[in-house]
Amino acid sequence: xxxxxxxxxxxxxxxxxxxxxxxxxxxxxxxxxxxxxxxxxxxxxxxxxxxxxxxxxxxxxxxxxxxxxxxxxxxxxxxxxxxxxxxxxxxxxxxxxxxxxxxxxxxxxxxxxxxxxxxxxxxxxxxxxxxxxxxxxxxxxxxxxxxxxxxxxxxxxxxxxxxxxxxxxxxxxxxxxxxxxxxxxxxxxxxxxxxxxxxxxxxxxxxxxxxxxxxxxxxxxxxxxxxxxxxxxxxxxxxxxxxxxxxxxxxxxxxxxxxxxxxxxxxxxxxxxxxxxxxxxxxxxxxxxxxxxxxxxxxxxxxxxxxxxxxxxxxxxxxxxxxxxxxxxxxxxxxxxxxxxxxxxxxxxxxxxxxxxxxxxxxxxxxxxxxxxxxxxxxxxxxxxxxxxxxxxxxxxxxxxxxxxxxxxxxxxxxxxxxxxxxxxxxxxxxxxxxxxxxxxxxxxxxxxxxxxxxxxxxxxxxxxxxxxxxxxxxxxxxxxxxxxxxxxxxxxxxxxxxxxxxxxxxxxxxxxxxxxxxxxxxxxxxxxxxxxxxxxxxxxxxxxxxx
Length: 548
Ligand code: G4P
Prior knowledge:
By secondary structure, the chain is of the alpha+beta class. It folds into three domains: 23-284, Rossmann fold; 291-389, Rossmann fold (3-Layer(aba) Sandwich); 401-537, Alpha-Beta Plaits (2-Layer Sandwich), CATH 3.30.70. The strands form seven sheets. An eight-stranded antiparallel sheet has the order 27-24-26-25-29-30-28-31. Strands 2-3-1-4-5-11-6 form a seven-stranded mixed sheet, sandwiched between helices. It has a six-stranded antiparallel sheet with strand order 18-17-23-14-15-22. Helix 6 (131-143) links the parallel strand 4 (118-124) and strand 5. Helix 5 (107-114) runs parallel beside helix 6 (131-143). The protein is globular, with a radius of gyration of 25 Å. The N and C termini lie far apart (52 Å). Bound molecules: guanosine-5',3'-tetraphosphate.
């Protein structure tokens, strides 16, 4: 190897190392209405990505949001999107992976977390933990993603802060560590005390959309008593003392292991506590981490680009009817026009039109680094979980399928349209738009759609009609819970006949049990403790699925 090419490689290694060092990537997990859109726009505002928060979300009449263009997607009835926002703040490049905040959940929401290195759990102070937050939390837990909690809407009457912490601890089995502590709440919300510095940040109700001024004082400053009611301050200090007495420490290793969550109180709408949160988050968050592959852990500094597809999106631009594959860069530097290997097929692919996405805008990307997300035009060759790489072979572990909760026969009333029906079903499954299950009775050939949200089914029907020209009918199965049998068919056979449950097979011919409710599931667990069940499908690599 010549001296100059070695020098080039060293340069590249340094560039990648610096990029990894300065990158932070996260997703916000929350229940609709907790304030994700509002928090996102405030974060972007600090990042200078937009001039004024109102530019992202005009009040009232226009709820079209740069980061959350789902409404639009919904109106078009095509697909529900999660995408990524990249912005710089100080010396950090932040990638915010946007999980759809819609009532209707889809698997994309889960998959986005496969590309995230950190998660921000956003709670409404009046509501605490809510169902979608819990579901998303479970995925974070499974992947051991560090979680930072932002308790929002402190300007409104909420639950007791201590009770909110207790809830996190007892229900999620996650140790909360309050980084700041609120003084009063609702009408009487006066600010927060930073527990690490004992500095008080006073709250002033800023004009909507503007950055609030943050007056800072030391907790011991006598002037504070003139600015904040004595009883509120005393209560806050008393509660803080209680926390100190409880003795937990802000242990970064535990944070990174997903066992301890730093908690911040604030109000996204009035822009209070957002910047201190962002600063502390960037200080504590995990950099782009090493990722598991079949060949072992892959370091982000590995020489040579590698990444995996975590999401496919069809028709992002209706004028072009295109498909975009979102790739999370895991190692090395990605460059435009690069030729990469597609691990599943072994084919070489030249990536000539990579894109970076900012809401609806797209820009051609010249290069990208670990922690970034790029969009690739996908003429049908990519599937969820696919790895792209240069250099020695890497194949990332696939993205698991999550337990669906809605099951419906998909009927094709028009036999002459069967060819298109089959093509549509197979392609939508491949794309990961929906999971497909099959009856064990071969005479019942219609596929069963299995989804985590109702809208997913509607999207499938809509797309079958619009893209494949087949009208279909849904017929609900009346089941709500699915479990994979971990040991496969032989284990299931040993158990014999099972009541109150339907056995189906997934696209990889693995047994899946469907139950009407949790109660029936628990009954089976009690009757057959030897049967190991899982609510996440085992990851498959290198095996072709069954097509319709
Ligand atoms: P989401 O994306 O999580 O669904 O929530 P979003 O940000 O859209 O916020 C939901 C509602 O909560 C919005 O009110 C928003 O203004 C409000 N909100 C968000 N953060 C705060 C906060 O810190 N304090 C208070 N008081 N309210 C907050 P809306 O009435 O639905 O919409 P809009 O009329 O304000 O646009």
